[in-house]
Amino acid sequence: GGVIAGWVEALQLMNAGSKWRLHVPSELAYGGQAVGSIPPHSVLVFDVELLEIL
Prior knowledge:
Keywords: Isomerase, Rotamase
Radius of gyration: 12 Å
Pfam families: FKBP_C
EC number: 5.2.1.8
Catalytic activity: [protein]-peptidylproline (omega=180) = [protein]-peptidylproline (omega=0)
Number of domains: 1
Largest sheet: 2 strands, antiparallel
InterPro entries: PPIase_dom_sf (IPR046357), PPIase_FKBP_dom (IPR001179)
Number of helices: 1
Distance between the termini: 23 Å
């Protein structure tokens, strides 16, 4: 378990206070594996706001 690779990459590039829309290709998410209601080879889209870095 853990965080998908696309999140790890994006969060390392974000600055505190920034808001990004992430389009994570399947290769950096779940690939060919279905997870719950997410079909295989899905591009995932997230709206992320990084409030602060501790």
